[in-house]
Structure formats: C-alpha cells, structure tokens
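Lecture notes, continued. The same structure-token format from the folding unit now serves as the input rather than the output. Read the line below as a description of shape only.
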C-alpha cells in the first residue's frame, strides 16, 4: 500500500506544472549589486561628466597656448604674413589671370610695390614732420621758457637750489641703478634683434604664401583622411575669403581714423595735418600702441603750435575718433563683413588684449572670423552643395557619401526583374587632378 501511494504521488508531481519564477523580480535581484550601484542623483553625475570633460579641454588649450608662447616670434611672423598675403593676393591674382603675368613675376611686382608704397608714405610723413619740427623749434623753446617761468614764478616758487637738488638726486639714482639700466638696455637690444628677425621672417613667409599658398594648403589638407579632404578644403577656402574681407574692412576703418584726426588737426590750425593723417592710417593697423602714439603726437603738435586750449580740443577729437572706431566702426562694419555680432567683436578684442597683449588684440578678430566660418561650413555640411568642392574633387566627394544600409531598404517592394545587360561604350574615368 505504501509503495502504491508513493508511486501515485510521484506521478502526480510529474504531471503538475513546475512553479514559474517571477521574471521581473529575478531580473531586479540579478541587476541589484550593492557594490556597483550609483547612489548619486542623475544631475550630479551629469554635472561631473561635463566637469571632467571641460577640464580636459581647458588643459589641452593650456598646452597649446604654452607651446605657442615658446615660439611666439615664429607664430606672430606667420600670422602677420598671412594677413599681408590676404591683402595682396587679389593683386597677384589680377596680374596673373587678367594680364598674363607669370606668377613669380606678379608676386615680385606686388611685394616691391607694397614696400615702395609703405616706404614712400613713411618717408613723406617723416620729411614733412622734420621740416615742420624745424619750423616749430623756436615755438618749442618759447614753450620751454614758459614752463620754466611757471616753475620759478608760479605757485611752486622753485629756486635754483631746488632744481640743482633734483638734478643731483637724479644723477645719484642713475649711478645706483647703473647695472639695472645696462641690463634693460641689453634686453632692449635683444628685442630690436627679435623685431628685425621677425620682419625678415614675415616677408620671407609672405613671398611663399603668395607664390605657393594653394600648394601649401593642399599639403596640409592631404594629411587628413581622404573623406575629410573635400570638407576641409571648402571650409579653409571660405575662411580665407572671410580673412580677405577682414583686411579690407580694417583698411577702411584705418582710413576713417586718418581722415577724422587729420581734418580735426587741419581745422584747428595744427601744423603737419597731412603727414599726421598718414601716420594715423599706418598706426591704426597696430592695436593700442599705434593709436596711442599717433594720438599723442597730434596732441603734442597742437600744444607746441597753438597752446594748451588747442591741445585739449585736439585731445578731445582724438579720443572721440578712437572711441567711435573702437565701439561703433569696429563692431558694426567689421562684424557685418566677417559675419560676427558686434558684441563678439568687442569681446574678442578685449579678451585677446587680456590674454596676449598687442598681438592678441591684432589677431583676435581675424582668428575668430576664420574659426566661425570654418565651424559653420562643416556643421552645415555646406560642401555637399559647394560648386568649388564639386569641381575640384568630383569623384572623391561622391565616394565620401556613406553607403546606404540595406536594412533601410523597402523590403515589401517586389524584386526587380533581371534583364540582360546591354553593351555600352565605356567612358575613361577622369582623375582628381584632371578635374
């Protein structure tokens, strides 16, 4: 009996379904690992992810700026040569294409004409200033005598002993700091040597940029993967066009500065108004220092020639023109030419000055304009509809398009009926260079 009963129970257990586990609870138990579970809220984890990526970007930029600071003379020379090349390249192009002048000869004519024009302007301004200062020397002596009378007979009531004491203290200070003054003079000598080296390097780079600029650009582009070359070539071409527009607008702004200060000096009766305008035009290409030196020269001429009141009026005119140039002309005209917001132009100049001084102020806007153009071009895939890229690359541009995934095809469409291929004439394929 007992054996039969156990047999029936065994059969009943085999026929009954086995109890099913709750899949949800099982997966939850399996996924729950107290050692790897993140207890931090999602916003904190998101902020931390952004933070360490941002720190890596900042560190990379710091390394780049540190490397640039070690070769600052080379970088500044190349950037200045690039600006000059963007200014002179249209002239070379006109001589080469329209007048059939060989490119090497066109580059030589353009560079020599540019140097002759700049030298003629500086020479004319220097000669007029020299002749004018010779005529103003007597007025300068009268002004010095007036200053002496004010020192001795004015509110200060200085005596000869006081002046002699000041001179003695000055000589003592010079003797005590002779070593420091000598080291400063030697450092200035090294600075002059660096300036001469930079000028020579700039013109050497300028000649080769005008002569082989396209080949240099293609050499850099060919370092990239094949699929990236059409996009980068089109982006850099657009960036170069933006740089050319920047240089032209900068010339317009410098001309407005020169005309404004020159006319102000002319109507105030300040001598040498014309050479002063030439110096203002040339100095406008050097941020901060150029405007400061040319404005100080204009005020000094007005002071020597016409007195304090005239000098104060000239100072007001110089400040008004420079403020209008910095806060109106540069943001509006420059921002429109290089497709930048006026606020972006102001912030770029200010930030460049704070980071790299005068070179930062000079190159901040053109670098930002080129970067903005390149990023917009690549982000918008503008090379797909760029005739320049299609004309140069052609087959490479078509090969750069990623193939269509077969899974995306319409599987419900009936299969195509196979037909026997018709013989056709085979066209010879053109290479990229032939196109």
């Amino acid at each position: 009996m007992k054996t039969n009963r156990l047999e029936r129970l065994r059969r009943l257990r085999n026929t009954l379904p086995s109890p099913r586990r709750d899949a949800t609870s099982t997966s939850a138990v399996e996924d729950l690992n107290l050692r790897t579970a993140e207890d931090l809220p999602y916003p904190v984890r998101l902020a931390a992810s952004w933070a360490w990526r941002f720190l890596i970007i900042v560190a990379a930029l710091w390394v780049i700026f540190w490397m640039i600071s070690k070769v600052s003379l080379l970088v500044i020379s190349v950037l200045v040569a690039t600006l000059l090349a963007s200014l002179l390249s249209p002239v070379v192009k006109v001589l080469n294409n329209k007048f059939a002048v060989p490119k090497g000869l066109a580059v030589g004519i353009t560079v020599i004409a540019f140097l002759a024009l700049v030298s003629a302007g500086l020479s004319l301004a220097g000669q007029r200033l020299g002749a004018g200062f010779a005529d103003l020397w007597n007025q300068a002596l009268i002004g010095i005598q007036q200053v002496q009378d004010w020192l001795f007979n004015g509110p200060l009531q200085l005596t000869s002993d006081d002046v002699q004491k000041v001179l003695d203290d000055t000589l003592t200070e010079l003797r005590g700091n002779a070593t420091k003054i000598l080291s400063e003079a030697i450092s200035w000598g090294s600075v002059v040597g660096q300036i001469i080296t930079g000028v020579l390097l700039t013109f050497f780079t300028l000649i080769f940029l005008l002569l082989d600029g396209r080949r240099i650009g293609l050499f850099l582009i060919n370092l990239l993967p094949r699929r990236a070359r059409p996009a980068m070539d089109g982006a850099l071409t657009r960036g170069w066009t933006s740089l050319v527009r920047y240089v032209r607008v900068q010339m317009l702004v410098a001309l407005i500065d020169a005309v404004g200060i020159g006319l102000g000096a002319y109507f105030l009766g300040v001598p040498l108004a014309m050479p002063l305008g030439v110096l203002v035009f040339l100095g406008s290409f050097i941020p901060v220092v150029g405007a400061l030196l040319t404005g100080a020269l204009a005020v000094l001429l007005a002071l020597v020639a016409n007195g304090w009141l005239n000098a104060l009026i000239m100072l007001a005119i110089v400040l008004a023109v420079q403020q209008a140039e910095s806060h109106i002309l540069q943001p509006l005209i420059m921002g429109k030419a290089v497709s930048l917001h006026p606020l972006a132009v102001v912030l770029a100049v200010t930030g460049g000055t704070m980071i790299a001084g005068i070179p930062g102020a000079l190159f901040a806007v053109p670098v930002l304009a080129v970067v903005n153009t390149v990023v917009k071009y690549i982000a918008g895939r503008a090379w797909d509809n760029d005739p320049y890229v299609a004309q140069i690359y052609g087959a490479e541009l078509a090969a750069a398009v990623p193939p269509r995934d077969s899974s995306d095809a319409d599987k419900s469409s009936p299969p195509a009926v196979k037909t026997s291929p018709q013989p056709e004439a085979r066209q010879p394929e053109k290479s990229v260079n032939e196109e």
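Point for the exam: DSSP finds 14 helices and no strands in the chain.
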